[in-house]
Structures are given as structure tokens and as C-alpha cells.
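Exercise: predict the fold of this chain.
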Amino acid sequence: MEGDVRDNVAMSRFEMSFSGDALAVAYYKVEDGRVVLLHTEVPQELSGLGYGSRLAHGVFEALRRDGKRVITKFPFMSSYATRHPEYSALLDG
């Protein structure tokens, strides 16, 4: 379904699909049992329309649901977590 975020474990990224082939992605790695968020990409044609925030919301909701601890290395995800204190309990570092 469009807009749902899923964890593509094989590619170490969360994905949110749109009509056609468009994907917004958040890359991560796992270190010491924690998910380290590295980078996000939103298709240029969707930039500035809130899709990055929708992706971030889905990522943090999935991580919270799975009881994961998170380290954010990418400014967008760090600032999203800062603006949404409901995710502060997930953050390490």
C-alpha cells in the first residue's frame, strides 16, 4: 500500500513506496543491537511535500513497536526525533 513503511532487512533500509517506482528510503546499520540511522532519500519530485516526515514517522513507529534502541547519524532524523519527544525514549547517543 502506498505510504506504508516496511523494513527491507536484506538491503538494510526502511522503504516507503509511492505510485510507480518511486521509493523513499532510510538506510541503517545495526551495531551492538542498536539501529543506527544513516541516511534518508526522498525522490526529488516529492521533496518538500512532507514525505520525509512520513517516512521518519513510520521508521520510528516500527522501531518503537519492535523495542529497538536508535542512534541517529543523519540530521533529518535527529531533528525529527527532537521535534517528536514521544521518540526520545528510543534514542541512544
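Check your answer against the key: The chain has two helices and five strands.
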